[in-house]
Please model this.
Amino acid sequence: ATCVAWGAIDDVGFLARHKNIKAALLNRMGGAALNSNVALNILEQFLLKNKSNIGVMEFNWGALTRFLPTANSPKFQELTKNLVNDDDKNNSNDIEKLLVNLSHEELLTTFIEMLKVETGEILRMSPNKIDANKSIYDMGLDSLMGVELIVALEGRFGIRLPVMTLNETPTIAKLAERIISQLKGEAQESTQEHDILTQTQHIISKHDIENAAEFIDNTVKNLQTEATNKSADRIIH
Model:
């Protein structure tokens, strides 16, 4: 048998019947669907040369790495060394130029537009329809999409963002301010107490707990004490 790992096929099959799914898939891949005639010609070459177990698809590797972390693994280094690294370098240079040449107001406006584009790609909606002052969770972002967005922003801006970033700054406007501060070195690293307090408050907000303020204070103190004494981990239910 001859096995081929086909990518998206444009004019026949499932994707041809479901245009919205095809558009979303290609947007993530950053490439194009294959015409069936092209696919059949490739299949002919595989049969003539007795080739099998080969993937055939067209995509942009930089776009793919945004939601597929394994795309940066060593086995794909031949694909990534000339493509992803160049993209990262260009992104870094672009951001550095913006930081130097734009005023704070201009930089904020520019970053907001960039964040709208990144968010729009994940939510599958036009950046023009995204309200920078509205919570991105209210626009349909879920936890998995949030992870995807954090990964995309880290790659785009060349920074590390804590896991709680989107909970602390859930609007694009606030997120842009935070990124600017971090890039300019104005943002201070969170202390252990701040990290514990933020995560505890987030958990408490999901549950109806009496005397929440007292519970948070006691929990933070207990966690800090346990961390200092290197005692066993505490599980918060």
Observations:
- Residues 187-193, 230-237 have pLDDT under 50 and may be disordered.
- Residues 182 and 189 are 9 Å apart (CA to CA).
- The first helix runs from residue 14 to 17.
